[in-house]
């Protein structure tokens, strides 16, 4: 009866509600008690009409009203408990889901985000969890409460008057069948409509983060048009869904109230003929209204539950996506506390998952000795940055292997592996927060003195002091408010503070003026001492300091040697040197 999707959604909810089962039991008890009290009100009405008004005895009336007030008190307390517990569970579970999804996402292999746009995932994390929250925190309890009302109401209807009840029983399938038919349509439309909303969210995020490029190219109008299309697409889908739901609600109301009318007519005839008492009819109408409105609420809530099933499914999809970069199941190797920094690549072939047909690294073998400084040069797209990705194990090669300290990186825990590297990436990544936070990023325990020392070496100290709050100055998202060269210097300071045995510099000084670069270059050798350093650079100054230079082209290692050797022996290097390194100047 349930689709596998719905079963998955239910399993997810059960999984997350399980730790709070006693809250759930309490909520369920309160729910049953309040539903019971509401239903017993019908009997109260019957007694009131038949015994109170009909017998015209003030004593009986007093008793009845006393009982009524007692029930009201029970209902009030029960409702408080139910509402508090149910909403509490909703909020608590969603907090848990959000945390767990984020904890999971942040550990996934980077390749995952190439196929799944990260901004889309981000909007899922907010919209889908909010949807789940409203369902667990209210719709689910509405559903249970109204189901109880329908079942209890129908039973009491039978007890009160079997003949009239048969009308209700005949009317019920009439009401339920359109609900099921429309419900199915609403379900598929609501999934579409949520996907559209996710589209809108990711579109905005992209345009706003690139706002300067957007405006520099006067691209606003195109963006407005494209955004309008996305929004209108979302609206069109939503409109279809709303229409289906409107039909659903209309049908339910007409059918339910129509049936009530018929009942009143038949029951009224019976009262006139003296076959039933007025109290019985009053109770009966009360119950049929309870049942009718409960069915109406159910039909709405079922739509919401179906939406939430979609949301839960997408969340469990996210939670089930496995990281492809993990520690091995068996044969885990552990690096020694003090890693020397020996790196070896053996016949490595690698192509990006999004471009399986071409190798970004094609048959590369290279040994880098502990303490050595190796410069990587080569034309754009040669695979230099990709090599760093492989060393850090953001991806696994299709063939060949990479060894750190003689251990295959795939046999290591990624955490263990990465603590050996300090990376300055080609596009220095800064985060929202203070300058200090950004430098301390990889080493939260570093003292203020250590932070300053790293900043001095990276020639960042002076410009940091010129900022309004110095090291405590807040940077915008992605380090907004800094120049390109300043960002690079912060990124270098951050890498220096980590104190890892292997330093990876991917054009770390490309945005610096010659003067600052020169100063950093002067400082680097002392830092590089005792560390293995891999530098990707286009400028001669950097390359000349290296012990060896490796020339790459089209994913292959073309030549390795010193500057002088390569100038003489390798035409590609000689050409690069002549053009990019500006040999004439040096
Ligand atoms: N995420 C990716 N998915 C698919 N292909 C990629 C990806 N990143 C890089 N590539 C491709 O892999 C090849 C090597 O790229 P890589 O970034 O390693 O070059 P590079 O040597 O660092 O160049 P540059 O000097 O311009 O930084 C290029 O052809 C590039 O288009
Ligand atoms: Mg690169």
Structure, explained:
With 586 residues, this protein is of the alpha/beta class. It has 3 domains: 4-320, ABC transporter transmembrane region fold (Up-down Bundle), CATH 1.20.1560.10; 335-420 and 502-586, 3-Layer(aba) Sandwich (Rossmann fold); 433-499, no CATH class. The chain has helices at 4-17, 21-54, 58-105, 112-115, 118-160, 162-209, 211-216, 220-272, 278-320, 384-391, 414-418, 435-439, 448-457, 461-466, 484-498, 514-528, 540-545, 563-569, 571-579, and strands at residues 343-350, 361-368, 373-377, 399-404, 407-408, 421-424, 433-434, 474-475, 502-506, 532-536, 548-553, 556-561. The protein has a 6-stranded mixed β-sheet, sandwiched between helices. A 4-stranded antiparallel β-sheet has the order 2-1-4-5, with helices on one face. A two-stranded antiparallel sheet has the order 7-8. The termini are far apart. Bound molecules: adenosine-5'-triphosphate and magnesium ion.
Give the helices and strands, then pairings.
Layout: H1 4-17, H2 21-54, H3 58-105, H4 112-115, H5 118-160, H6 162-209, H7 211-216, H8 220-272, H9 278-320, E1 343-350, E2 361-368, E3 373-377, H10 384-391, E4 399-404, E5 407-408, H11 414-418, E6 421-424, E7 433-434, H12 435-439, H13 448-457, H14 461-466, E8 474-475, H15 484-498, E9 502-506, H16 514-528, E10 532-536, H17 540-545, E11 548-553, E12 556-561, H18 563-569, H19 571-579
Parallel strand pairs: 3-10, 3-11, 6-9, 9-10
Antiparallel strand pairs: 1-2, 1-4, 4-5, 7-8, 11-12
Helix pairs in contact: 1-9, 2-3, 2-5, 2-9, 3-5, 5-6, 5-9, 6-8, 6-9, 8-9, 13-15, 18-19
Bound molecules: adenosine-5'-triphosphate and magnesium ion.
């Amino acid at each position: 009866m349930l689709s596998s999707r719905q079963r998955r959604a239910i399993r997810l909810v059960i999984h997350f509600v399980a730790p709070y089962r006693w809250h759930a039991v309490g909520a369920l008890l309160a729910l049953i008690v309040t539903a019971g009290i509401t239903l017993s009100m019908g009997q109260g009405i019957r007694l009131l009409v038949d015994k109170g008004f009909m017998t015209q005895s003030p004593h009986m009336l007093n008793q009845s009203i006393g009982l009524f007030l007692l029930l009201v008190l029970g209902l009030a307390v029960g409702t408080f408990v139910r509402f508090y517990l149910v909403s509490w569970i909703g909020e608590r579970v969603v907090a848990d889901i959000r945390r767990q999804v984020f904890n999971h996402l942040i550990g996934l292999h980077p390749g995952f985000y190439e196929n799944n746009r990260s901004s889309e995932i981000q909007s899922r994390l907010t919209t889908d969890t909010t949807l789940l929250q409203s369902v667990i925190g209210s719709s689910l309890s509405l559903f249970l409460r109204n189901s109880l009302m329908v079942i209890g109401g129908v039973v009491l209807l039978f007890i009160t008057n079997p003949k009239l009840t048969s009308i209700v029983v005949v009317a019920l399938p009439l009401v339920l069948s359109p609900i099921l038919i429309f419900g199915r349509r609403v379900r598929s439309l609501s999934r579409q409509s949520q996907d559209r909303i996710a589209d809108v969210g990711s579109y905005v995020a992209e345009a706003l983060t690139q706002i300067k490029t957007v405006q520099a190219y006067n691209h606003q109008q195109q963006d407005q048009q494209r955004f309008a299309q996305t929004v209108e697409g979302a609206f069109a889908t939503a409109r279809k869904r709303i229409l289906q739901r409107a039909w659903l609600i209309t049908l339910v109301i007409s059918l339910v109230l129509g049936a009530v009318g018929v009942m009143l007519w038949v029951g009224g005839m019976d009262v006139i003929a003296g076959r039933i008492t007025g109290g019985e009819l009053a109770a009966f109408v009360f119950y049929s209204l309870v049942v009718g409105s409960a069915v109406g609420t159910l039909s709405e809530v079922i739509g919401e539950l179906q939406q939430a099933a979609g949301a839960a499914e997408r969340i469990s999809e996210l939670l089930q996506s496995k990281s492809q970069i993990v520690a091995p199941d068996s044969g885990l190797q552990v690096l020694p506390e003090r890693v020397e920094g020996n790196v070896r690549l053996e016949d490595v072939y690698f192509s990006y998952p999004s471009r399986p047909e071409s190798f970004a690294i094609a048959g590369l073998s290279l040994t880098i000795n502990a303490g050595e400084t190796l410069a990587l040069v080569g034309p754009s797209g040669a695979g230099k940055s990709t090599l760093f990705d492989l060393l850090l194990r953001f991806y696994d090669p299709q063939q060949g292997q990479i060894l750190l300290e003689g251990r295959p990186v795939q046999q290591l825990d990624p955490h263990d592996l990465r603590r050996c590297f300090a990376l300055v990436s080609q596009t220095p990544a800064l985060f929202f927060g203070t300058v200090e936070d950004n430098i301390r990023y990889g080493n939260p325990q570093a003292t203020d003195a250590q932070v300053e020392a790293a900043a001095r070496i990276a020639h960042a100290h002076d410009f940091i002091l010129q900022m309004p709050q110095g090291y405590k100055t807040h940077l915008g998202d992605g380090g907004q408010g800094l120049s390109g060269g300043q960002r690079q210097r912060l990124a270098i300071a951050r890498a220096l503070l980590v104190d890892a045995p292997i330093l990876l510099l991917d054009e770390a000084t490309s945005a610096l003026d010659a003067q600052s670069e020169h100063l950093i270059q002067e400082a680097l050798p002392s830092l590089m001492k005792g560390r293995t350093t891999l530098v990707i650079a286009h400028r001669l100054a950097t390359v000349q300091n290296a012990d060896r230079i490796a020339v790459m082209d089209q994913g292959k290692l073309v030549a390795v040697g010193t500057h002088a050797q390569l100038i003489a022996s390798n035409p590609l290097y000689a050409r690069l040197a002549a053009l990019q390194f500006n040999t004439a100047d040096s």
